[in-house]
Design a protein that fits this description.
Elements: H1 2-11, H2 18-32, H3 39-63, H4 67-84, H5 98-111, H6 115-124, H7 133-149, H8 153-166, H9 174-186, H10 193-199
């Protein structure tokens, strides 16, 4: 489980490389070798699969082989189903859930260019069930990116308003401020956009 956590942490900045997938696949192989995994192991292996799916969405999309990313996502969804029915004697809150899988699928399918599927997952997501404000902000950010890619700048901006509402510092992340600028390029006339841009222009504690 320590290996799984380390692999996920290391894979995030390396997600555009094959090395990231190698790390995640190694961690997954160790976890799936457990014959009777407890809830904690299921949680870990499912989150490794989700991270691998997101990582593969970058590398597989570039190679035009989206099946790898979707296969990892499907593994995570199956594990989430097992986890939901697994006894937990540790009272440790699980990170993996069906809604967490849905959240990841928004970004995965958007990265693969399947905007209809990405937006279908966004519509099915219930953000209130996600465990933290940061996860709810990520849901809104990923949905905004998918909407902007579908030429719905107004819808994308509505999602960015949600980011600022649920986790204000997230709206100041450089990547989110870049998304705000892209929306402004498409629709500078959107009511409230100039004020939103001004209020989120100062970087938060992220680099």
């Amino acid at each position: 489980m320590v290996l799984a956590a380390a692999a996920r942490a290391a894979a995030t900045p390396l997600r555009r490389t094959r090395e990231a997938l190698d790390l995640l696949e190694e961690a997954q192989s160790h976890l799936t070798a457990i014959s009777r995994p407890a809830a904690a192991e299921l949680d870990a292996v499912g989150m490794v699969a989700l991270t691998a799916a997101y990582t593969a969405a970058y590398t597989a999309a570039q190679a035009q082989h989206p099946a790898l990313a979707r296969n990892f996502a499907a593994q995570a969804e199956q594990t989430a189903h097992r986890l939901a029915h697994a006894p937990d004697t540790t009272n440790r809150p699980a990170e993996l859930s069906a809604q967490q899988c849905t959240l990841y699928r928004i970004g995965i399918d958007r990265e693969l260019g399947d905007l209809d599927t990405a937006l279908a997952y966004a519509a099915a997501l219930e953000p209130a069930t996600l465990p933290t404000p940061e996860r709810r902000a990520r849901a809104a950010t990923d949905t905004a990116r998918a909407l902007l890619a579908a030429d719905d700048a107004a819808g994308a901006f509505a999602q960015l308003r949600l980011v600022k509402l649920v986790a204000p510092l997230e709206a100041r992340r450089p990547s989110v401020r870049t998304l705000t600028a892209r929306i402004a390029e498409h629709r500078p006339d959107l009511p409230g956009l100039a004020e939103y841009t001004r209020r989120t222009a100062t970087p938060g504690p992220y680099r």
